[in-house]
Amino acid sequence: MTHPRDVLLGAQAATGLLPVCDHYSGVEARMRKSLQLQAEMTEEFGTCVFDVTLDCEDGAPVGAEAEHAQLVTDLALAAAPDARVGVRVHPVDHPAFEADMAQIVGKASHRLRYVMIPKVESVDDVILAENAILRSGGKDLPLQVLIESPAAVHRAFDIAAHPRVQSLSFGLMDFVSAHGGAIPADGMGIEGQFTHPLVLRAKLDIASAAHAFGKVPSHCVVTEFNNADAMRMAARRAAREFGYTRMWSIHPSQIRPIIEAMSPDERQVDTAVTILLAAAAADWAPISHGGALHDRASYRHFWQVLERAHATGVRLPAQAQGWF
């Protein structure tokens, strides 16, 4: 049987299928705990279901940026060989940026999966970060960028088009603050971030820019980490209504609700398998299923459903397991 990847060409597939959850931690004890939890859940799910981003921007005490960068380097180097570890460095205009890159990328680039650059305002910032990676020996290390201002949202398509950029994240808190009080504080909350028009427009623009260039859109934080149902609802809305395929976690209790909400459910997986098997039997010609026509355009969608299911540890029916 011809493999779907060999047939379904032309899909605007994201740059690498990233885990649906990106977990941030910057305090030493929490960084160590996050890496341990990642290893435990990788064993449980049979695949790495969330990334760990070691945080220099919010994690480094003021005046101790160099010591924190050394700690992050040590943790990245000590992580398990199959761990998925990234780092958020300081913004490109911060005095510690160059030192962050020289220390962490220079010594641990072979263990990092990406570098997150906060407060990116334009393509010029991406180019500055790329040059710093190259000077530090990072070679092909991807950049993930954080869009945090109205001007950056306006330039999101240009930023997403840069070939080094792998993912665009939305920085909700700074975005709201950048409006000088024009967006009320509840625009940062679990309800307001899904109802205020300016916040909604920013989310949609960032997701659209990411998908236009085959990059991964990553949804912002939810600060109400004690409410698992609210977390699950936010992740589900981010995925189904706004097109986000990845989401930030800032507390271990948020990881499982995000994975659950952003993973395809059993019904979606069964539908995808049924349609793709019928398509393969028809040599990928158009078919009818449930009274609806399907061809390669919809086949690509259903194949992406299965890829996401596999990446999130969802057990696939036996008929589809051979594709992976």
List the helices and strands and how they pair.
Elements: H1 4-7, E1 21-25, H2 28-45, E2 50-55, H3 65-78, E3 85-88, H4 97-108, E4 114-117, H5 123-135, E5 143-147, H6 150-154, H7 156-161, E6 165-170, H8 172-177, H9 197-212, E7 216-219, H10 228-240, E8 246-249, H11 255-262, H12 266-281, E9 287-289, E10 292-294, H13 296-311, H14 318-321
Parallel strand pairs: 1-2, 1-8, 2-3, 3-4, 4-5, 5-6, 6-7, 7-8
Antiparallel strand pairs: 9-10
Q: What is the number of independent domains?
A: 2
What is the helical fraction, as a range of percent? 40-55%
Sequence stretches where pLDDT stays below 50 over 5 or more residues: none
**Over all CA atoms, what is the radius of gyration?**
20 Å
N/C terminus separation: 13 Å
Sheet with most strands: strand arrangement: 1-2-3-4-5-6-7-8
Under CATH, the homologous superfamily of the largest domain reads Phosphoenolpyruvate-binding domains
Q: What is the CATH topology descriptor of the largest domain?
A: TIM Barrel
Beta-strand proportion: 5-15%
- CATH architectural label of the largest domain: Alpha-Beta Barrel
Question: What's the helix-strand series?
Answer: HEHEHEHEHEHHEHHEHEHHEEHH
| Shape category | globular
Biggest sheet features: 8 strands, parallel, barrel
Q: What would you note in describing this structure?
A:
This protein is of the alpha/beta class and 324 residues long. The chain has 2 domains: 21-262, Phosphoenolpyruvate-binding domains (TIM Barrel, Alpha-Beta Barrel); 265-321, no CATH class. The protein contains 14 helices and 10 strands. It has helices spanning 4-7, 28-45, 65-78, 97-108, 123-135, 150-154, 156-161, 172-177, 197-212, 228-240, 255-262, 266-281, 296-311, 318-321; strands spanning 21-25, 50-55, 85-88, 114-117, 143-147, 165-170, 216-219, 246-249, 287-289, 292-294. The strands form 2 sheets. The chain has an 8-stranded parallel barrel, surrounded by 5 helices. A two-stranded antiparallel sheet has the order 9-10. Strand 7 (216-219), helix 10 and strand 8 form a beta-alpha-beta unit. Helix 10 (228-240) packs parallel to helix 11. The longest helix has 18 residues, at 28-45. The chain starts with a helix and ends with a helix.
